Amino acid sequence: MIKVVIAGIRGRMGKTAFEAIQATEGMEVVAAYDYKHEGKQFDGADVVETGGIPFYSSMDQLVQETTPDVFFDVTRPNVVFENVMEALKHQLHIVVGTSGLTEASLDQIRAQAEQYNKNVIIAPNFSIGAVLMMKFSQMAAKFMPDIEIIEMHHNQKVDAPSGTATKTAQLIQEVREPHTQGALGEVEDLKGARGADIEGMKIHSVRLHGLLAHQQVLFGSAGELLTIRHDSFDRESFKQGIVLSVERVLEVDQFVYGLEQILLQD
Ligand SMILES: NC(=O)C1=CN([C@@H]2O[C@H](COP(=O)(O)OP(=O)(O)OC[C@H]3O[C@@H](n4cnc5c(N)ncnc54)[C@H](OP(=O)(O)O)[C@@H]3O)[C@@H](O)[C@H]2O)C=CC1
Ligand SMILES: O=C(O)C1=N[C@H](C(=O)O)C[C@H](O)C1
């Protein structure tokens, strides 16, 4: 039995992860790591007095009392790094769904994982369709290197650009020579109108009620346009990748950034 502790369990993705793990044979959620609700429990929907899994704000106590194997984080960009470093110190394997980790933080996590000989999977997006969208975009970028990424999310998302858009841009950077796009000497009359810039490639973030998680990658070339688009309409779309990550983190080679490294190796 793989024993999992979830950080962020009260949130939208935490609840999704809880449902996915509890519904899967061979794995179970044994604890919630949280800065609130010490001594209380979580029943899948709400914080309750009894009848759920326990909340802990002390990792020492959590590990002693529930002996988990895997630390699963879906919290906030400003919290995830500290959580992961603490969990590695406590000899846990790590799965991260939280967005917003910088390259410097990723390097530090990799080093800490090596030091403690633990495995880490960082999954910018758990949806299989989204992983394919990112890989297909990388393939297309080789042939059509003028690119704009438009990511669209619900209006409660706190970070921009999304982890998925950042990862997409990084995959594309592996095959695309940096170059300026658009007209020479182009001017923004309104600051931000052309979006964020990574080596000349543009990223635009849309936040609106009614959206969940969507991305389209536009490839322009003389007389043609290719659009690669993915939509998550429901958080169900993340469950397969969540379960896969929890299973595989026990056996992967220490540090994996992006589920494509697991899916496309099988
Ligand atoms: N990889 C993927 O496929 C996906 C990743 N995500 C990412 O997951 C993250 C969470 O998203 P989402 O669930 O929508 O956000 P939510 O705001 O719904 O959930 C975050 C939760 O984390 C809690 N939290 C804050 N600080 C801590 C802490 N120190 N310890 C434990 N819990 C804490 C918050 O509690 P409180 O509000 O009380 O502070 C909140 O309940 C985001 O970074 C998002 O981008 C989302 C969907 C898919
Ligand atoms: O906040 C979200 O909702 C999502 N966050 C992740 C991201 O930043 O890419 C994954 C997915 O897009 C949903």
Structural features, described:
The chain is an alpha/beta fold. The chain has two domains: 2-122 and 236-263, NAD(P)-binding Rossmann-like Domain (Rossmann fold); 128-233, 2-Layer Sandwich (Dihydrodipicolinate Reductase, domain 2), CATH 3.30.360.10. The protein is built from eight helices and 14 strands. The strands form two sheets. Strands 4-3-5-2-1-6-7-8-14 form a nine-stranded mixed sheet, with helices on both faces. A five-stranded mixed sheet has the order 10-11-9-12-13, with helices on one face. Helix 1 (12-22) crosses helix 7 and helix 3 (80-89) runs parallel beside helix 4. The radius of gyration is 20 Å and the shape is elongated. The two termini are 23 Å apart. 38% of the residues are buried. The model has no long low-confidence stretch (mean pLDDT 97). The structure holds NADPH dihydro-nicotinamide-adenine-dinucleotide phosphate and the ligand O=C(O)C1=N[C@H](C(=O)O)C[C@H](O)C1. NADPH dihydro-nicotinamide-adenine-dinucleotide phosphate binds next to helix 1.
